[in-house]
Amino acid sequence: MRASSVPQPEPAPRPRRRTVLAGAAVVAASASVLPAAGTASAARRPGKTQPHRWRTAAIGGTGFVTGVLFHPAVRGLAYARTDIGGAYRWDDRGSRWTALTDHIGWDDWNLMGVEAMAVDPAHPDRLYLALGTYTQAYASPGAVLRSEDRGATWSRADLTVRLGANEDGRGCGERLLVDPRDSDTLWLGTRHDGLLRSTDRGATWAADTSFPATPSAGGQGVTLLVAAGRAVYAGWADGGGTALYRKDTSGGWEAVPGQPSAGAATKVPVRAAYDAGSRALYVSYADGPGPNNQADGSVHRLDTVTGAWRDVTPVAPGDGDAFGYGGVAVDASRPGTVVVSTNNRWGLVDTLFRSTDGGVSWTSLKDTAVLDVSETPYLKWGGEPKFGWWIQALAVDPYDSRHIVHGTGATIYGTRDLVHWAPEIRGLEESSVRQLIAPPSGALLLSGLGDIGVMRHDRLTVSPSRGMASNPVFGTATGLALATLKPSYVVRTGWPSGSASAGAYSRDGGASWQPFASQPAIAPSAPGPVAVSADGATLLWTFIHWDGTKYAAHRSTDSGATWAEVPTFPKGGTPVADPLDPRRFYVYDTDTGAVFLSTDKGATFTEGATGLPSGDVQFRIAAAPGRSGDLWLSAKDNGLLRSNDGGHTFTPVAGCQASYALGFGKAAPRRGRAGYPAIFQTGRVTATYEGVAVLRSDDAGATWVRINDDAHQWGWTGEVVTGDPRVHGRVYLGTNGRGIQYADPR
Q1: 352 near 365, Cβ under 8 Å?
Q2: At 9, is the pLDDT very low, low, confident or very high (cuts 50, 70, 90)?
Q3: Sign of CA dihedral 347, 343, 391, 300
Q4: Which pLDDT belongs to residue 63?
């Protein structure tokens, strides 16, 4: 994912995650206490907030689950971490996940990625999270959250180094560990700043200067920390001939004697697990950190009593079957029982291997697996579900030997009998949301998402029964539009998956789809946003390559059967259709700060307002429903502007200091006349609230109320927001890793 002041979505040519220097080696951390669900980044102003009930629309996962951790001393207690969507706690009675980091606010968006997590076996209520999504200079330093009540409340220690929860190696770990000899001591492995230590339960941190490995600005650094009895082991990915270190008896660190010789199959230690019953440490290796670009790997067993190593690799990667190894977990109640996962095995599909004899023999669990994805039908991907991919998170329930869970690039699969597998994902929603449409009839909601295309929600509390939109299947959706005077007609565009088709239309409100009969040659490699005229007769499609290169827009008047270039349309712009007049389209040229207008059904465009904010592709126009030529321009920190004359002139909206995303919903009830549509935005209006918030106005932007609260912030929410045309006050908000949030006034 590319970022400047906030994350900016990066399209991907195939399904993948929404897809680098800390300086000082000594880290002085500041600590703060977060009451309730979190600290407010800005003061609340009395009388300017309307309480809402916030919920998450059900899809089920949809993102990379990078870690799953059962508490060794509490039955049914588990935690999960994600690369961009925060952390979760498992509610065993309700069989669902509870989000633990939704309190993270706008300015802390980089903390929504969880690099590592740790529990204290001696203190079951303690939980630690290492947060930080990117290590690049544009991102803020990381932080460590610590909780004494299983994540209900937090204290926070800010670091001066950056962590990389959404970078290569994010499935390694865990990189955070409570010292088995002293619960006050914690260890944190970083990518570029060596090994950190805290002696006050995570309140402050400093570099462990005795750690012998030398950090690299471009390396992976410490990939894992694991306790084996009273000993601590650390995995190192940046070469030097040593991949595994151990705390020695003097309190320093030493290379583990006899460890596997350096080579492609043992280059990066990915995960490790200690079997206390047999006093054996199992380590999975690969030739890269993953989750992509692995072609070799192995699994090794260390007898921590004798120091003897043994290669216990289930299947050696080779020509025609290249992959690495990922997760490794042991059965706490059955010594010698261990489970490992393959990773990046796209040909034969990834599997879990299970051994009950310490790695002497193995059984592939995928080969007998019966998958049931009825609760999350999108996992069929327009065909048949897969057992997994990007499997680096793996755990065995310490209280149930037959309960195994593994994370994938989209879900968490679990089994209770080693044969039947189903998603154990309820409550965990990780979508990166790109587009939202609440139709006036038919479906409750249509959404365009990163990695999994388009969804149609007929109910918000269950995953869409049709799964992801198919015919064709997309990876990341790039465009979604509805004909306002003919709302059963919908079009979508996106990165092709399984075919070359990058666009489709629906005549039944998104229930079924037909691919465009033809498409411009550039479409499969640079699909961009799309617009449809109010009557559904005209399509405008623009094209942007993943590297930012912009191409000419094209126009169709026959549902995509034929296309013609529109030379006067600004390349790379996002087309917007007038909601009443089928002849009118608008586009904001963010390169020049000018609005271009069409009154001939998109055939030609002429310049309208000029001198507007420029230089940011996320500046955008929205057209007010039920009106012609009533346009609103969200220009981030340049504020909110409005045009009443079809884009010829714009006037700043007084009192709005920042506007990032804007949409409309049903007008507030008024006696005798129809009111102006409710306006929703992610923005800053200091008369209402000092920080960036989710806001609503029922008087055309004259006044605003905050409708989210300090417990519901979700990091960066600047991509999309819309109201409901059927229910006043209902709002749908797209997040960057926490799915679709929706709310109604209390």
Answers
A1: yes
A2: very low
A3: positive
A4: 96
Q: What is the pLDDT of residues 645-686, one digit of tens each?
A: 999 999 999 999 999 999 999 999 887 677 999 999 999 999
Candidates 327, 412, 316; CA nearest to 90 is: 412
Cβ pair 342, 427 in contact under 8 A: no
C-beta separation of 535 from 525 below 8 A: no
DSSP conformation letters of 550-607: EEEEEEESSTTSS-EEETTSPTT--EEE-SS-TT-EEEEETTTTEEEEESSTTS--EE
Q: Report pLDDT digits (tens) over 410-445.
A: 999 999 999 999 999 999 999 999 999 999 999 999
Q: Which residue out of 179, 275, 451, 724 is catalytically annotated? A: 451
Question: Of 608, 601, 699, which is closest to residue 646 (Cα–Cα)?
Answer: 608
Q: C-alpha dihedral over 693, 694, 696, 697, to 10 degrees?
A: 40
677 vs 103: CA distance, rounded Å: 29
> What is the DSSP code string of 207-218?
E-TT--SPP-TT
Report d(CA 327, CA 341) in Å as an integer.
5
**pLDDT higher than 50, residue 88:** yes
CA distance 467 to 123: 42
- For residue 229, the Cα-to-chain-centroid distance in whole angstroms is 35
pLDDT in tens, 223-249: 999 999 999 999 999 987 899 999 977
Match 């706690």 to its residue by tokens.
89
Q: Which DSSP category does 111 fall into? A: G
pLDDT tens profile 353-367: 999 999 999 999 999
Q: Which amino acid is at 714?
A: W
Number of H helices, E strands in the chain: 0, 59
Task: Please provide the average confidence, as pLDDT, over all residues in the chain.
Answer: 93
Cα–Cα distance, 196 to 737 (Å, whole number): 28
Can you read off the two tokens belonging to residue 116? 């590592």
Position 241 scores a pLDDT of 85
Per DSSP, the residues of 625-647 read: TT-SS-EEEE-BTT-EEEESSTT
Q: What digits encode the pLDDT tens for the residues 291-330? A: 999 999 999 999 999 999 999 999 999 989 999 999 999 9
The dihedral of CA 468, 470, 475, 478: what is its sign?
A: negative
How many C-beta atoms lie closer than 10 Å to residue 230's C-beta? 10
CA dihedral 59, 62, 67, 70 (to 10 degrees): 20
Residue 22 in tokens: 């800390």
For residue 111, which phi and psi values (nearest 5 degrees)? -90, 5
Q: Which residues contact 46 (CB under 8 A, 6 or more apart)?
A: none
> pLDDT tens digit string along 250-261?
788 999 999 999
Residue 712 identity (one-letter amino acid): H
Instruction: Report the C-alpha gap between 604 and 589 in whole angstroms.
Output: 15
DSSP one-letter code for 669: P
- Whether residue 451 lies in the annotated active site: yes
**C-alpha to C-alpha distance for 448 and 159, rounded to whole angstroms:** 35
Catalytic residue among 83, 102, 158, 698: 83
Residue 192: both structure tokens together = 């570029």
Judged against a pLDDT cut of 50, whether residue 16 lies above it is answered with no
User: Residues 336, 342, 343, CA angle at the centre, nearest 5°?
Assistant: 145
Element spanning 282, H or E: strand 280-286
Structure-block tokens of residue 238:
């940046």
C-alpha dihedral, 729 to 733 to 739 to 740, nearest 10°: 30
